[in-house]
Amino acid sequence: EFVPEERVIIGTTEDNGAVLAPGHVRRGGVGNTNVGMLTEDREGFLPRLKEAFDSCGFHVKIHENIQYLIWDKLFTNVSLSAVTGILQVDMGFIAGNEYAWNLTKALIHEATAVAGSLGLSFDEETVTERVRQTSIGNPTGCTSIRADLRDGRRTEVNTISGAVVTAAKRCGVPVPSHEFVVNMVHAMEMKRQDSSI
User: Fold this and answer.
1) What are the helix (H) ranges across the chain?
2) pLDDT tens, residue by residue, 5-44
3) Where is the Ketopantoate reductase C-terminal domain (predicted)?
């Protein structure tokens, strides 16, 4: 909206952390930070970005098709984060509960359909199994949406599940489960606000 596409850099990170107080962040885990551009990097900016981030302790990887990587990460976030937030449960609960898992599978189905309409092909069965293993492998894991709702903060639901809703509208793909979780998370944000009045 504000700059030409060739000036936009996007990415994901496997690093995680938590805000402890203004100006204080705890680094919770280390992984790769993946970056790419929406268009060809004609000015060679990404190698300079990598060098700067690497010198600060990050591990940057440059990707030609960053959109694919972002959607691949998004599948876990739009399913586990939203559902654990609404239910206020640990990540391990999702794969072990029939009803939570049904909603999770519906979210994955819709998200892979939207990605497909954008020209990004994912195997839904593979994605679903990876999300299930993430749930099983992190039995006490707490997602950001769950933590934010628990602690009375605004969530990132608009940039996670809401991103699927926005893309779906552009592509004409129905995503009723994603619309439900976005509305539910916002209702829970407002419930906390209303109860403090």
Assistant:
1) 45-54, 66-76, 82-87, 91-96, 98-117, 124-137, 144-150, 161-171, 176-195
2) 999 999 988 887 778 889 988 887 788 999 999 899 999 9
3) 65-189
